[in-house]
Specification:
This protein has about 400 residues and is an alpha+beta fold. The chain is built from 6 helices and 26 strands. The chain is globular, with a radius of gyration of 25 Å.
Amino acid sequence: MVNYTVKIYLNLLLIVVLTSCTNQNKKPQESFSVNIVKDGVISISDVLKSDKIPNDILYDLKYVELKGYKKKENPISSRTVKIVGDRIYIFDDIVSELYCFDFQGAMDYYIDFNKFKTKKDEKIKATSFFIKNGKVNIVDSEKRLLLTFNKTDLIDSKEFSFWATEVEAVDINSLIIFQGYVNNMFGSPYYFIKTDSNFTVKNKYFAVPDTELKASLKIGTTQNHIFKTDKDINMLLDQENSIYKYPDFVAPAYKIDFVNYNINLLSATSLDLPSPSMYDYARVKTFWESNSNVIVSYSLRKELGYIIHNKTNNKAFNSYLIKSLNDMLLFGVLGVHNNSFFTLIENDQITEVLKLKKEGRGFLKEYLDNREPASSNPVFVFFRLRDF
């Protein structure tokens, strides 16, 4: 009886060992396309869980070295990059400078707005810019001025009656303006307005139009921006992470639902809950859309993540924190041109990539293989995404 019991015990032990060895040989399953997109809602149930993104998702990469562009040593430097016609414009609102390049990377001209003054002999503080009829237009939000440059020459200056933080030209005679506080009152809602070229208001767009209080709560706490591609203008517009499209604003074109990380300020206020800043909540930062894909960046816990949505199969990747060279490129998308996303790789980023070439040089491999050893120019990168 004892021998029989021992035999059973040994057989059970052998089964456990074999099962353990079998499980160890199994590779962990890679997480691909786990987030389903339905009716324009990109739902990410667990923001902190990153999907594994295929290394070959980037393709059709093209590189342009920007000769003469020098990044200022400013840790909070904020760049806005736009492509209009056959020119690349790089604007830094912290140092108040703008560079213009052709598509071969040669600098066409450079403007230091610190060297210009208003008619009242006040220093200009450029806060945003747009291109209209080949001219550079600079907004000075503090002084409520629009200044027009023909390359390096200041040719016109206009005043407007409201506080505008961003302006974008939508056709020959119309502008879309992201306006700050209404009636100069702190705490009043943010909204977008449409004006003619003389700043006569033609229309106003609210996310919640019934009361100013609700509008303030819904859109007054978010960083709203105007994102213009070759064909469309998209606008981030409310604290529920909705993206609206010009010109209708009837319903969000997309909504990023972070589920447990979406904090509804209206509900929190009505329930007398503490400030949403005391919770973990995700906020959309940028939104770029090509014919096939959408790339969204967001912030959570003072870190950045991004979402890639494939419009063909209605699936999405979510990536939180930088984990690969591809991530570094996708994190910093600055726009869309001819159905390609683009970004700017600074010299310090290239240095980091060079340190990693023993592990594989990723998306910069072709460029680095042909880069001149003495080159110190930043690199402008165009890329597309494969279907997944």
